[in-house]
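Subject: Predicted fold for Sodium/proline symporter, 493 residues

User T.R. writes:
Posting the sequence so we have a shared reference for the thread.
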Amino acid sequence: MNQPFGTYLTLGIYFIGMLVIGWYAFRKSTGDLEGYMLGGRGVGPFVTALSAGAADMSGWMLMGLPGSVFVKGISGMWIVVGLSLGAYLNYVYVAPRLRIYTKIAQDAITIPDFFENRFMDRSRLLKLISAAVILIFFTFYTSSGMVSGGRFFESAFGMDYRFGLFLVTSIVIAYTLFGGYLAVSLTDSVQGLIMFAALVAIPSVAIYHLGGFKASFDIVNQLDPAHFNLFQGVQTAGILSLLAWGLGYFGQPHILVRFMSITSARELKTARRIGISWMVIGLLGASLIGLAGYAYVNVNLLELSDPETIFILFANILFNPYITGILLAALLAAVMSTISSQLLVTASALTEDFYRTFLRRGASNRELVLIGRLSVLLIAVIALIMSYTPNDTILNLVGYAWAGFGSSFGPAVLLSLFWKRMTSWGAIAGIVSGAVGVIVWVALGLSDMLYEMIPAFCASLLAIVVVSLLTSAPQQQVLDEFDQARQELKERA
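User M.O. replies:
I've generated the structure tokens; pasting them so everyone works from the same file.
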């Protein structure tokens, strides 16, 4: 479809704004690897919370979730419960411990780096396996974001899918490659605000046009009463699968890195309040877009070939062109914020956990930052090739990668922060069991029966405990650092 000039103008300003932020970050904080990958551990709670939320939610929040609720009704909202609870527990139990412990563990700047330093693994095997998992699953995850970008331009502007794919990817590469973590965090924060505004504005205006909440819900009820049945079309296994998405938070590197970069563990309480509020309101807004969309499309006899584009439909028909441009920018913000975060984390794995560890231990900071930028470009090109011909829904692509990280890293992160007896061999067994469990479960076609996160997470947890107990206890220095981290946590509480 052709959009008015005002819509193109607003989107153009948005793109320029993201590039300007990238340039600003390039000027400020890319002198060394910690500055490029973690912003020098000087990021405040507001930026931490909003960038974590924006990086987390991706295009599925504005397309996948509304589309799911449009089709299934409120039974598709079990995932909202699981994600909200998982994010809250992640902020409370993982965030402060990880911020303190990564500093004690020789100032680790990546999750594989933390694992190696936490267990003093001299074999390098733990770091190698952890980094490999990041490369595999983040390539799929990044690809899902690029697919969202391509479909956005296809649906909103009637443009070729591949044009949108290349445009979005190019802009994200530009500000991520040059500005590093600071650029990603600042752009994510701005994008988080835009997303929040859109997720409040669109359902509010749509419901107003339908005559208010009661009238909207009455219409949905008349069309299909099952849309208000929490258990419609879902069995117990289905509900558990949706709730299990919350387990994934404990192992997502692009979210955990936000906790590592914040200025102080004390500021995480403020970040939690901002982040959880943003998330709950946003998820409810996205769900309401799906419900209101179901009513609006049927009442007005509109055609909607893809339910995942209901957000775009509302943005086009309910607002003037300039506001439409802002709302469409919100969808792009969701897509771009996640892609940039994933690119940077994957690049950090290639740079810190492969290049410096195995190829150039004496590399200078200037060289490492250069390799980091080249890694961003390499991963982006690979993900772009994978996205060229999409063959799955956005939610399914995200779900696969989310389960991969949640199952392989989640139990390892949790137990490394809470269980003193855990060993490096236990960590290796858990990471491998979780990753392989997800891949095998999906390959066997069992995902429709039960989300792969559940069996793989349990397998990883069990493997860590069993192997840790069967192998030699950690050396004394490892135990001392664990006690030091626990003591610092108590002092800063």
